Amino acid sequence: MAQAKDGDVVRVHYTGTLDDDSQFDSSVGKDPLEFTVGAGMVIPGFDDTVRGMEPGERRSTRIPPEEAYGEPRDEMKLTLGRSQLPDGFDPDVGEQIHLSGEGGQPVPARVVESSEAGIVVDANHPLAGQALTFQIELVEIV
């Protein structure tokens, strides 16, 4: 039977959990996730797990932060003064906003502090610093 290798387009079902067993994502009840193995479309540890799987095979893997979304980086936290914000814009702590990145690309960030002086936003991926455990089933190699 064929095994998934770099360059193959595959479809997988997965469920992702954190070390506290909370679920952060799943394709169960939805269409399978489709991606090209080795093309950088998924986090490296996910790619590594799917590589070598056969259709119908299931694997469980725990991916450390450095093979997932990395460790949180201090430079991804930004302080914005009220003068830098649009008039009347007063986001709540925990709210997600979008900043403009290089070339005007939107960069999602979470508001982590708010005061009269301004806000502090964190543009790290929400799963940065987390080990991720995936239950993966290779549905098919397209």
CATH architecture of the largest domain: Roll
Q: Tell me the number of helical segments per DSSP (H or I, 4 or more residues long).
A: 1
Question: Which stretches are poorly predicted, pLDDT < 50 over at least 5 residues?
Answer: none
CATH level 3 topology of the largest domain: Chitinase A, domain 3
Order of helices and strands: EEEHEEEEEE
CA-atom Rg in angstroms = 19 Å
- The CA-CA distance between the termini, in Å, is 14 Å
- Give the % helix: under 10%
Mean pLDDT: 94
**How many strands, which pairing sense, and closed or not: the largest β-sheet?**
5 strands, antiparallel
Shape estimate: elongated
Describe the overall structure.
The protein has 142 residues and is mainly β. It folds into two domains: 9-70 and 127-141, Chitinase A, domain 3; 74-122, Thrombin, subunit H. It contains one helix and nine strands, in the order E-E-E-H-E-E-E-E-E-E. It has one helix at 44-50; strands spanning 9-17, 23-26, 33-36, 58-63, 77-81, 96-100, 106-114, 118-122, 132-141. The model has no long low-confidence stretch (mean pLDDT 94).
Descriptive tags:
single chain; 142 residues; mainly beta; Thrombin, subunit H; 2 domains; 5-stranded antiparallel beta sheet; 1 helix
What is this structure, in a nutshell?
The chain has one helix and nine strands; from the N terminus they run E-E-E-H-E-E-E-E-E-E.
